[in-house]
Every structure is written in C-alpha cells, then in structure tokens.
Write a structure and sequence with these properties.
Structural class: mainly alpha
Shape: globular
Helix content: over 70%
Low-confidence stretches: 99-118
Strand order of the largest sheet: 1-2
Strand content: under 5%
Mean pLDDT: 81
Distance between the termini: 27 Å
Order of helices and strands: HHHHEEHHHHHHH
C-alpha cells in the first residue's frame, strides 16, 4: 500500500519538476531565439507527444487489454469523463472571457496570444493539469516499470515544453516573468496533487488503474484538439510527427 502511494508521489514529483524546469528556462530560451518559429515548433512536438501518450500509453492499451465488456465500457466511460471535464472547463472560460487576440511583445518580438489578464483563465490553464498528473501517478504506481517508463519520459518531455509555453502565455496576459514562472510552477504542483490523488485511489482498489489512465487520456486528448482547433496556423509537420513516434519508439527500446 505504502509503495503504491510512494511510486505515485515519484511520478508526480517528476511532473512537477519537469514543468517547473520548462517554466524556469523559458525567458532564456526566448531571448536566444531569432524568431518565435522555434518556440512554436517546440510546442508542435509537445502536442504530437501528448497524442502519442494518449494512443500508446493511456487509452489504447487499456482498450486492447480489457478483459470483459464491463471493463471495456469502464475505460470508454472514463475517457468520455476526461473529455467532458476539459470541454466543460473550456466552454466555461469561453462564456466568461472575451479575450482580445492582439500582438503582445515578448522578448522583443510579437506573439499573437490573448491579452486578457483574467485570473479565471490563468487558473483554468493551471488546473487542467490535474488529470494529467493522475496519469503520471497511476502509471508509475500501477503499471510494470518497463511499461510505465515510456509514458513517464513522454510526459516529462511534454511538461518541459508546456511549462515554458504556459509561462509565455501568462506574460501575454500582462504578468511579469517572475509571476509567470511561479504560475507555471503552480501548474506542476497541480499535476503533483493529481498524482497523489491517483496513488490514494489505487491504494483503495487496483481495479481503478484502467479508468484513471483513460480519464487522463481523455483530458489530454481534448486539450490537444482544442489547441489545434484554435491555432492560427497548422502545426509544423516534422516536429508534430516526431512527437507522435516518441512513445512507441520508447516502448520498442524498453
């Protein structure tokens, strides 16, 4: 029991530190770049990596390995619950926020992102990471180590990119870099809490592993689809495809 919670905490700690790392290096990364194209390609890679994690670590294996129709429908229901959570949160924000998509100068360049300073929107960006943290904690606590490592590596890589881009978004709201980095670290802390919640759930019943992973996968899938839909331009193909092959490649190597 204690080992289950301990492993979940380790998974949450990795998520926290990788998100914080991305946040902490974001000012230096932007200052060294000659254009924001590199930053966008970095995010495109992270989006592909998230989809790869959903397909090959979170939802796909749980559907394939379902032992009965009941467990299959549990995975489907948990996936839809994750989808519904993020979709409802997004609709709530859309209803209460009227953002002005004007160009905001960051690191001497122009970045077109919402200029709203709403705390509600910032909290939404932070707390959507809770189900992602649940996936990190549940996988390490409930899956064989060799199966969990590719997902952990994929999530950590994605979190570095997400932490950096979240800090950039907060700067776009008018925050200072210091506040933006703190906000992004809080996002990682929310992932840690999600991992701990998953650990406690698995202590109660190991049968919750598949639904927890599927719930996290549904939430991640919806986040990616919303991001792609609201993009002003299509993701760069090469970074996106590179992200897609990371998890199956790690699965093959490990």
């Amino acid at each position: 029991m204690a080992q289950t919670l301990g492993l979940a905490i380790i998974g949450g700690t990795v998520s926290l530190l990788s998100t914080g790392l991305g946040a902490s290096i974001s000012p230096r990364v932007l200052n060294k770049q000659t254009s924001l194209g590199d930053t966008r390609r970095w995010l495109d890679f992270a989006l592909g990596l998230m989809l790869s994690s959903v397909a090959f670590s979170l939802i796909g294996p749980e559907l394939l390995h379902a032992q009965s129709s009941t467990s299959f429908f549990q995975v489907v229901a948990a996936t839809l619950a994750g989808v519904g959570l993020i979709a409802a949160l997004h609709l709530f924000i859309d209803r209460d926020e009227h953002t002005d998509h004007s160009s905001t100068p960051i690191a001497g360049r122009e970045l077109s992102i919402p200029s709203s300073s709403s705390k509600l929107l910032a909290l939404a960006l932070i707390f959507h990471n809770f189900p992602e943290g649940m996936g990190a904690g549940a996988s390490l606590a409930g899956m064989p180590l060799l199966q969990a490592l590719p997902l952990q590596a994929g999530l950590a890589t994605q979190n570095i990119a997400e932490g950096a881009m979240l800090a950039v978004c907060f700067v776009g709201f008018g925050w200072s870099w210091k506040k933006a980095i703190i906000g992004s670290w809080l996002s990682g802390a929310v992932e840690f809490l999600g991992a701990v919640a998953a650990g406690f759930s698995l202590k109660w019943s190991s049968a919750l592993l598949s639904p927890l992973l599927a719930f996290a996968g549904g939430a991640m899938l919806t986040s990616v689809l919303i991001d792609l839909r609201e993009r002003e331009q299509r993701p760069a193909l090469k970074p996106f495809l590179s992200g897609l092959i990371v998890v199956p490649l790690l699965n093959f190597v490990l």
